[in-house]
Design brief:
Oligomer: single chain
Helix content: 40-55%
Strand order of the largest sheet: 1-2-3-4-7-8-9-11
Strand content: 15-25%
Mean pLDDT: 89
Shape: globular
Low-confidence stretches: 263-268
Number of strands: 11
Order of helices and strands: EHEHEHEHEEEHEHEHHEHEHH
Structural class: alpha/beta
CATH topology: TIM Barrel
Number of domains: 1
Radius of gyration: 20 Å
Number of helices: 11
CATH class: Alpha Beta
Length: 362
């Protein structure tokens, strides 16, 4: 089981202006030094939830200067918002700065307001089709192939992006919210999968991963692909102490997520029958009850929370679902000093979860 760090903060304005990115930068250096596999930075616009990262390539470039080994991944670029030419150029720069350590998670997007960027309003409804088309263009540009477009004078030209990346093939992940068809599509494309437990269980995820592996094999791709699962994470010495420590910040974090989702319910990819939900009837007490229940679900079923033993049990369950990597989301509101101090407990779990690999390295 590979372990990575995933960043998706809800920046509510409480953090000092100069310290916004301290946790990301310091934990990234720590992860690089301690054998973690990847760092994941998101793309989010116009909202506090994830708003520290409107462009993951910029953060990845900063992390490239502070790290030497860990892979730097977008989790994820909303591909229909961008010209694939620009995506190929930006990430090729990061690939060079990092010595060939880029990985790119891509998503089709679900927030309508995001599509005002670059005049992409018309791309929202057909975003899945635009997404598939842009993946193909992005991969070809990365390999050095030409891409034919028309310039403002009506001339058809062939462009080749620069700088050329270090890696000849782009390591690609498709972000999947839980739709089995998207798992199968990723397998057919020969792309890795980045997913979560919002709206799905580990048992259900295991079945979808089996579909992904089957589609991968049927398409004739070598290997088996990588399935990365994002889990909210905090490891400590005592289950009850961790529960009490993370409850309040996690509830605030979930409130931020709810604030974003409630404005665009019908577009949220992991909600079923969203058209039947009427949030106007929800009282503050009802909302708090929902947040309480959501937190308890995360703590007991959908996160990497608690003592070493409890977290190792969760790792076993995740491994049984045929997941290859746990991306540990750490920046959900616990004070940065506390998070940084407790990363050593997470490293204990990583080491104990991989005794054979640790022995081979020794």
């Amino acid at each position: 089981m590979d372990f990575s760090l995933y960043y998706f903060a809800n920046h509510d304005g409480d953090t000092a202006e100069r310290a916004k990115y301290r946790l990301i930068l310091e934990s990234a250096t720590w992860a690089d030094r301690n054998g973690f596999t990847r760092l994941w930075t998101p793309e989010r616009h116009f909202h506090s939830f994830g708003g520290l990262s409107p462009n993951p390539s910029v953060l990845a470039a900063a992390l490239a200067a502070r790290t030497e080994r860990v892979q730097l991944c977008a989790g994820s670029v909303v591909l229909p918002l961008h010209d694939p030419i620009r995506v190929a150029e930006e990430w090729a720069v990061v690939d060079n700065l990092s010595g060939g350590r880029v990985g790119l998670g891509v998503a089709c997007g679900w927030v309508p307001n995001d599509f005002v960027i670059g005049g992409n309003q018309d791309a929202f409804e057909p975003r899945k089709e635009v997404f598939a088309r842009n993946i193909d263009v992005l991969r070809r540009l990365w390999r050095g192939e030409g891409h034919r477009v028309h310039n403002p004078q009506g001339q058809e030209i062939e462009v080749h992006t620069l700088p050329r990346p270090v890696q000849p093939e782009l390591p690609l992940w498709v972000t999947v919210a839980g739709n089995p068809d998207t798992f199968r599509t990723a397998g057919r494309l020969g792309a890795n999968v980045l997913t979560h437990l919002l709206g799905q269980t580990l048992d259900g995820l295991r079945d979808k991963i089996a579909e992904y592996r089957s589609a991968w094999r049927a398409a004739g791709h070598p290997g088996r692909g990588i399935v990365t699962l994002m889990l909210h994470t905090f490891v400590g010495e005592d289950d009850d102490e961790v529960h009490d420590l993370v409850k309040a910040p996690m509830k605030r974090y979930l409130q931020g997520s709810l604030s974003l989702a409630s404005a665009h319910l019908c577009s949220v990819p992991f909600l079923q029958h969203a058209e039947n939900i009427d949030l106007s009837r929800a009282t503050p007490q009802m909302v708090d009850d929902v947040l309480d229940a959501s937190f308890e679900k995360y703590f007991h079923m959908s996160g990497l929370f608690g003592s070493h033993a409890r977290c190792l049990d969760m790792v076993d369950r995740v491994e049984a679902a045929d997941v290859d990597e746990i991306a540990c989301l750490i920046d959900y509101g616990v004070p940065p000093d506390v998070v940084l101090q407790n990363l050593e407990h997470l490293n204990v779990v990583r080491i104990l979860a991989n005794p054979k690999r640790r022995l081979a390295q020794a």
